[in-house]
Amino acid sequence: MAGSSLPDDFDVVILGTGLVESITAAAFSRIGYKVLHMDKNCYYGSDVGSFTFKGLQERFSSKLLEDKSIDSEQLISPEERCIKLNIDSPNFSNYESQIFVPDEEPEEDSKEITEQDDKDAESSPKENREPSSVQDTDSDKDGKPCEKDIEKVTEKATCNQMKKEDSKTSKKLWTKQKMEKQDRHFNLDLNPRLLFCRGDMVDLLISSDVAKYVEFKTITRILTLQDNEIKKVPCSRADVFSSKDISMAEKRILMKFLQNTLKYKEQPEEYNSFSERPFREFLISKSLPDNIRHFIQYNIAMVDDETSTLIVCTNVLTAYIEYLPMLLTRVWIGLLNLFCAVFGGTYCLERTAANIITDESNQAIGIIDTTGQRIKCKHIIMNYSFASRSLLDEKIQRSEVSRAMIITDKSIKESKQEELTLMNIPKSSAKDCITIFEVPYAAAACPDGLNVVYISCSRDKTAREDLQPIANNFLNFETEKSEDKPNVVYSLFYNQSYYASEKITSEKCPKNVYITSELLGNLDLDDSVSKARLLFRNICETEEFLPKAPNPEDIIFDDPSEAKPADGFSEDVTKEDGEETNETNETNVPAPEQSAKDNA
Predict the structure, then answer these.
(1) How far, in Å, CA of 200 to CA of 205, rounded?
(2) Do residues 487 and 100 touch, judged by C-beta distance below 8 A?
(3) 41 vs 87, 97, 126, 386, 516, CA distance in Å?
(4) Alpha helices (runs of H) in 92-220, residue ranges in sequence order
(5) Basic and acidic residues composition bias: which ranges (predicted)?
(6) Residue in 2, 5, 12, 21 with CA at minimum distance from that of residue 68
(7) Could you tell me the pTM of the whole model?
(8) Domains of the chain with CATH codes
(9) Secondary structure of 282-326 in the HEC alphabet?
(10) Residue 580: beta bridge partners?
(11) Dist. CA 290–CA 292, nearest whole Å
(12) Under a CB-based contact definition with an 8 Å cutoff, are residues 448 and 189 in contact?
């Protein structure tokens, strides 16, 4: 699509395919606006993209779109001016990756596995007939088989079973080659986050009828690290009363505290003296046992030692208790990118705006893209990474997150079934906590036999320096295999930057240019929905935000010629001579049903 000519007039041009931009693009397309959605990257999702194993390596080894020099003065009139945009502004830094398995399987090992397979195949029929040998053994006076003979048969069957299990284990030796062969089974997220089942994002997915295209998995357990031991946190009523880590008296205390928290608005006087004081002090004042305080603060409220009691009781704990369970999308939420195109939007990757064109009144009237094409528009929405410093408020500062993405050969705490795990650990410093997700094969994150562990916290140093010490507590980063800890197959450490301020635009920014940002350090996605809705309201005050799409059978056309087959594709972009383009990066994307099947 990079070399093709785009239509030269749109209602809205959106730069960046992050979550806020994608939701906004879908909302405008849904009400009939002509939307052009562009991104300098070669993938959808911007800072919240999702990748295969090979795609992840390419993401951190490839360069951003080259900033070609464009003579913008030749494309504008004397009374117009250009505002140059950032094309090569990286939001990731300090990335370090390492593969802990050999590139290929050693020949000797592969031969041994093949030979063992042959032996198993030959021995299996004999094993099935083995119990019949009891009939031929000596019997006691009552006609029963001798105990010694039964023991021999049992021992032999046990040995054969152990050989089978050893053979299965040996087949699960991972190599880089094997991981690349199963590349499409990986679904690795740059910014993994959760959805509260009664949160804004789930409500939006349901109301817009998009939920039917997305599969969800529930967080099945919450863990904590206490006294160098990983323990399961009792969160629900069932968990509390089945837990063996707390006594019956402590169970009653925990349940009573959680129930009283929901009555905060009815009994605010109980919290008044602590409203501006840390939540930690409030818990201490209640004379709660140490382990109960630990569970409540770090794993239920998930707050650090400095978070105020008012914030926790009015927002955090209430949301946690009322909006449980927490969900993770089985096909990543980046699928929302596609719905803009379903409603007629035009997508274009590896191509973006190089300049904003403004008139004498400092009103944006269009863009000049990286190919030198001038495109008219009424509104411009862009991710903060595209904005030059003159468009941003002078006082704002970037926030940064340290992240680790680690692929392991087993769970950090094994159980009878695959678990989708959330874990929160206090940092050595009082500020912030370390959040850990563990996503198994059942959540479509990786091939069978592997798990993906995501670790994040606010940045102090580099990502490796911030996160490696805590990861060493429950993961084995050595090449020599461990039986006690999960062995690391692959690791990636990186820092991610973003703007956390609500207002980030300067007074010099044109009134019809809107700059977006996401709280990438948040646990959930509700903030992105709120910002997209507010942005939509600023432009379309009276229109409904992402209403449910009508069924094709219910649509009545005034002009019969308009009733073309609805294939979910946007209008084809053609070259100047009228021939259809056959570029690899097409503006049209598959309908959601097709995309969901391809990604599943």
Answers:
(1) 9
(2) yes
(3) 10, 21, 59, 12, 17
(4) 107-129, 147-171, 176-181, 200-207
(5) 111-130
(6) 2
(7) 0.78
(8) 9-90+332-396+501-599 (3.50.50.60), 233-324 (1.10.405.10)
(9) HHHHCCCCHHHHHHHHHHHCCCCCCCEHHHHHHHHHHHHHHHCCE
(10) 574
(11) 5
(12) no
Structure tokens of 555? 């649509």
> What distance in Å separates the CA atoms of residue 19 and residue 13, rounded to the nearest whole number?
16
The pair of three-digit structure tokens given for residue 388, joined into one six-digit string: 């030059």
At 557 the pLDDT is 56
Joined together, the tokens standing for residue 44 give: 């959808």
Q: What is the mean pLDDT of residues 114-119?
A: 49
Give phi and psi for 283, each to the nearest 5: -65, -40
Looking at the DSSP bridge assignments, the partners of residue 119 are none
Evaluate whether 457 touches 437 at the Cβ level (below 8 Å). Answer: no
Q: What integer is the mean pLDDT of 76-87?
A: 90
The encoded tokens of residue 90 equal 């990286």
Q: Quick check: bond before 145 cis, omega within 30? A: no
Q: How far is CA 486 from CA 208, 416, 431, 480, in A?
A: 41, 16, 28, 12
DSSP, collapsed to helix, strand or coil, labels residue 472 as: coil
Q: Cα–Cα distance between 91 and 114 in angstroms, integer?
A: 47
Distance CA 534, CA 393 (A): 19
Token readout for 363 is 């009103």
The CA distance from 531 to 521, in Å, is 15
Q: What is the pLDDT of residues 335-382, one digit of tens each?
A: 556 666 667 789 899 999 999 999 999 999 999 999 999 999 999 999
- Token pair listed for 11: 């209602």
- DSSP annotation of 247 reads -
Residues 6+ apart with CB under 8 A from 440: 411, 418, 419, 420, 446, 451
Q: Helix 526-539 and helix 19-30: axis angle, to 10°?
A: 40
Tokens for 528, please give them: 């992105």
Which amino acid would we find at residue 55? G
Question: By the 8 A CB rule, do 441 and 453 touch?
Answer: no
Q: Which amino acid is at 473?
A: N
Please state the separation of Cα 595 from the chain's center in Å: 17
Checking 252-261 for CB contacts under 8 A at 24+ apart, the result is: 253/288, 253/289, 253/292, 254/292, 254/295, 254/296, 257/286, 257/288, 257/292, 257/296, 258/300, 258/317, 258/321, 261/313, 261/317, 261/318, 261/321
Q: How many residues does the chain have?
A: 600
First to last CA, the chain: 26
Rounded Cα–Cα distance for residues 218 and 214 (Å): 13
